[in-house]
Beta-glucosidase (Nocardiopsis gilva YIM 90087), 475 residues
Amino acid sequence: MRFPADFAWGAATAAFQIEGATRADGRGVSIWDTFAATPGRVLGGDTGEPAANHYRRYAEDVALLRSLGIGNYRFSLAWPRIQPDGTGPGNPAGLDFYDRLVDELLAAGIEPWPTLYHWDLPQPLEDAGGWPARDTALRFAEYAAIAHRRLGDRVRTWCTINEPWVVAFLGYASGEHAPGRREPASALAATHHLMLGHGLAAAAIRGQGATTTGTRPGTPAVGIVLNAQPIRPHEGSVADLDAARRVDGVRNRIFLDPLYHGRYPDDVRADLADVSDFAFVRDGDLTTIAAPLDFLGINYYSPASVTGAAGKVDPELLEPAGDGPSRLVGCEDVGVLRGAEPRTDQDWEIDATGLTELLLRLAVDYPGTPLYVTENGASYRDEVADDGAVHDPRRASYLDQHVRATHAALTAGAPVKGYFVWSLLDNFEWAYGYSERFGIIHVDYDTQRRTVKDSGRWYGRLAATGAVPPLAGSD
Ligand code: PNW
């Protein structure tokens, strides 16, 4: 199985998950520093220290990318390194770090794909209201302009926001993520201001225009990254089909429709009428949000099945309802099925057909934009074996299945232009701390030693050749 020669192969990370050095060079405090320091929020009491200490070891990590033959690297910029308080002029030392990283990547022949927001909001902006406050969207656009001014002569591709659904609904409705607020109505205001922030940032980046003086002239490409998810009815009943429509609404269409059609879906607004009147939407906002995307990034891990008749389903088959508000605002009576077997060590269902289904659905319902799989991967709690290697056949198999599913979507006509594995390195997996390991490179958090896993070698061969290599034991 072979991919087009210009298909982009990459690996992804995020600043808070790998950098460590949370107090270096004037970095401000982010909501994830605060959240992780609050007892009971992150498994094992883990924090952003030491992570993979990438802030000091970035050159080694770029060398690993290069040695594996991976030509694209998606990473995120830590807003609190660039604006420690979330406002004001850029912090030179923080900007210098990303400057060095971008130069190191380009010198290695690797395309940089920075994401502006991967969840580390400066704490002072949360104290002023966070994403439910409109001002945060305006501050985000200023930050985007500062980052682009410094890096835009070399960076051609920008992702604005990573997974606004997770930010809004896990951060502000269920409280599973920072800042840990449990306010379903605030999650909807946050949703709108994240979308507005995306639109304003895209305009700021494009407004600074084509680079004519930099080392890499060209027009910047701007996209957003969504963790859109295929939502399947458990069975064929009207109740299950309607539940799937409602969950698809708050999980997927509440982001996709403003981006592509300049409006929030009528059925979603009706379903949410008891929660919010959407008064946060002002004239002109939806025009800003709907400026055409240069690409859409999609993070895919699992599909979900839902039921509108939860009372009639064996409780063993359902995800237990948590003790706080649901992540699926407005769908509180919907039952979410536990992922079927097989599952990863994190208990996430493995079903690569969902990725094909999702890419094709986007190609049909939201046509006209190049698609990139900006994250896909699996957590297995691998260890370094006595022979010094990390044997992770289940991760290699997961990646093999999902790469093939991506190829199937491409063959069927979806405009898929690239694939990024999550993640380059084992890292801080948010509320799970360091207990989950998504890397194709193992990190020993005591010594900071990196070990390329078997899946990393397999992925490197794929990235270098564009042809899917055989899995170990199957040649
Ligand atoms: C994504 N959920 O996060 C993120 O973009 C990464 O930073 C993260 O490490 C990766 O997926 C693996 O989790 C998610 O609970 C975290 O639905 C949680 C959820 C979804 C995505």
Remarks:
- The mean pLDDT is 96.
- The longest helix spans residues 184-207.
